[in-house]
Specification:
Distance between the termini: 27 Å
Low-confidence stretches: none
Helix content: 25-40%
Order of helices and strands: HEEHEEEE
Shape: globular
Number of strands: 6
Strand order of the largest sheet: 1-2
Mean pLDDT: 83
Largest sheet: 2 strands, antiparallel
Structural class: alpha+beta
Number of helices: 2
Length: about 80
């Protein structure tokens, strides 16, 4: 387990092989990865349904592997 994994352990919900963070924690996770020069390959947006199922949300997902990423200030 690396430094960032230890820092964010328990701040999200495990779903199989995934850990799902609330958006405020996800933003801090991204900042921590940037601070440690850890490359992020993508971000998957997820909607929590009323029955607590998770549904992928394409409009809020980003893939940094398929094309050059243009730096933008997202937050």
């Amino acid at each position: 387990m690396n430094k960032i994994e230890k820092e964010f352990w328990g701040k999200g919900v495990s779903q199989g092989l995934w850990v799902v963070f609330p958006k405020d924690v996800a933003i801090e996770f991204i900042k921590a990865c940037k601070r440690e020069s850890i490359r992020i390959l993508g971000i998957d947006g997820i909607l929590l349904q009323p029955d607590e199922r998770l549904q992928p949300f394409q409009e809020c997902s980003l893939d940094f592997t398929s094309k050059p990423y243009v730096k933008k200030k997202w937050f």
